[in-house]
Each structure stands twice: as structure tokens, then as C-alpha cells.
UniProtKB/TrEMBL annotation:
It comes from Larimichthys crocea. This is Helitron helicase-like domain-containing protein. Residues 21-170 form the Helitron helicase-like domain. It comes from the Eukaryota. The lineage of its organism: Eukaryota, Metazoa, Chordata, Craniata, Vertebrata.
Length: 250
């Protein structure tokens, strides 16, 4: 993979190694030379523009660290997972491209998986559109749902079965600082303004109540990752909600 990426990068410019030699395709055929290039970070340097490579993420991490130095610690760390299995429009769009119609409610888990797998590009495109829309609503909206956003950073990752999720960092203007710099009650007030573990009222918003009870609740049966070693659930569930928010210190 390193050899291929470097060949592509070579066509774009005139790469020189750190010790001043011109990188030739002959050099790339030589395993020892390639290893030397990787050790000197010459190889990784050429891979930097290639999204997803270690060199790419190394640069991204540097950029992110620069943001933390400039802006301070981020206020929110949010994870959003794709729920293609619950999105009829994704399944229907994939089928429509194959000039077929499906009744989403009649499909079982395996049938949905097969359809999603048949066109991962469309699935990803629709996910990307959702992410864009999420950013518009959550980050850029003048309604300031999570406060006035100073800056944000997110990264898309893929689970084993190929389902994407994003990790998002958000910096909020004038957010109180944790760690004893401010009174606890100021921090608690801020948290309570935006975060709750309360079950939504089914009468007030039945759809929200349904979504939260289906995907935001730790399963009674737990999952595979719950049981590691001898513990019943390494996440410590079930947990009872507390009456009020408290801050705990080590
Ligand atoms: Zn569990």
C-alpha cells in the first residue's frame, strides 16, 4: 500500500528523500529502500494527502492539538451513529437505483443488511447528507441549541460491519470550566441546560419517546461487549438516574 501511494504521489511532484536523493520507481521496488523511507518518515510524508492513511491522521491530530491550544478544552464530546436499519429512505433509495420497490416494514434484519451491502456508496452519500444537516441544525443554527459554537471538529469512523459514526468535539463560547476553576453550581447549571437522562414524555412527543427508549437505553439483555472477564456488565448497568446533577472528583 505504501509503495502504491508513493507511486501516485511521485507522479504529482518530484519527491526527494531526506538525504537528498531523488525517489525513483526502482527505489520503490527495493524492500530495504522502502523500509528506510518509512523509518525516515519520507514514506508517510507522501501519504499525508491520502485520506485515511496514518500520515493523514497524524497531520489531523496536529491540527486538532493546535485547536485545543488555541481554544482550550472542548465543551462537548458527542458520538452519533448511523442507524441505516431504521431509515426506510436509505433502503428504498438503494432499491430504487436497482429499479425495484420494497416495503420496508416487511423486511427482516438480514434482508436489510443485504440491500445496504449491495450499494455502500449510496449508503455513505446519504449518511454524509445527514451529517451535513446535523451540523447545520446543531452547530450553525442561530437557535444555538447547545450554546454559541466557537468551533468544532469531527471525524467519521467505521464499525466492524461498515456502519459509520462520527465523533464530534464542540467548543462553546463562555462555557464554564470544570476542575475547580469555577464553582460547581455554575458547571452544573450549564450541564443541566443541555443534558438530561430523563425519559421524554410519551404524550408530549411520542416519536422522541419511542426513539429514546429504543436506542438510548442500555439493553436489559446487555450486549456482547458488556461481558468482559467475570463481570456481568462492565459498564455497570443498570444504573438509576439521580435526582440532580453532581460533579464527582477522583
Ligand atoms: Zn451491559
Amino acid at each position: 500500500m505504501a509503495t502504491n501511494s508513493m507511486s501516485i504521489q511521485m507522479r504529482k511532484g518530484k519527491p526527494i528523500t531526506r538525504d537528498g536523493r531523488k525517489i525513483s520507481s526502482k527505489m520503490l521496488q527495493d524492500t530495504q529502500e522502502v523500509e528506510k523511507l518509512i523509518t525516515n518518515k519520507d514514506a508517510t510524508r507522501f501519504m499525508q494527502p491520502l485520506r485515511g492513511t496514518p500520515a493523514y491522521w497524524e497531520k489531523t491530530l496536529k491540527d486538532l492539538n493546535a485547536m485545543v491550544r488555541q481554544l482550550g478544552k472542548p465543551t462537548f464530546f458527542l458520538t452519533f451513529s448511523a442507524a441505516e436499519m431504521r431509515w426506510p429512505e436509505v433502503i428504498e433509495a438503494v432499491k430504487a437505483q436497482q429499479r425495484q420497490q420494497v416495503d420496508f416494514s416487511q423486511l427482516d434484519w438480514n434482508a436489510k443488511c443485504d440491500i445496504l451491502r449491495s450499494n455502500p456508496v449510496t449508503v455513505m452519500q446519504l449518511f454524509e447528507k445527514r451529517v451535513d444537516e446535523l451540523m447545520t441544525i446543531l452547530i450553525l443554527s442561530p437557535a444555538q441549541h447547545i450554546g454559541e459554537v466557537e468551533d468544532y471538529f469531527y471525524r467519521v469512523e467505521f464499525q466492524a460491519r461498515g456502519s459509520p459514526h462520527i465523533h464530534l468535539l464542540v467548543w462553546i463560547k463562555d462555557a464554564p470550566e470544570f476542575e475547580g476553576l469555577q464553582d460547581d453550581f455554575v458547571v452544573i447549571k450549564f450541564i443541566d441546560q443541555y443534558i438530561t437522562c430523563q425519559m421524554p414524555d410519551p404524550n408530549a412527543d411520542s416519536e422522541l419517546h419511542k426513539i429514546v427508549s429504543e436506542v438510548q437505553v442500555h439493553s436489559r439483555n446487555h450486549s456482547k461487549s458488556c461481558k468482559k472477564g467475570n463481570v456481568m456488565c462492565r459498564f455497570g448497568f443498570p444504573k438509576l438516574p439521580m435526582d440532580k446533577t453532581i460533579l464527582t472528583y477522583p
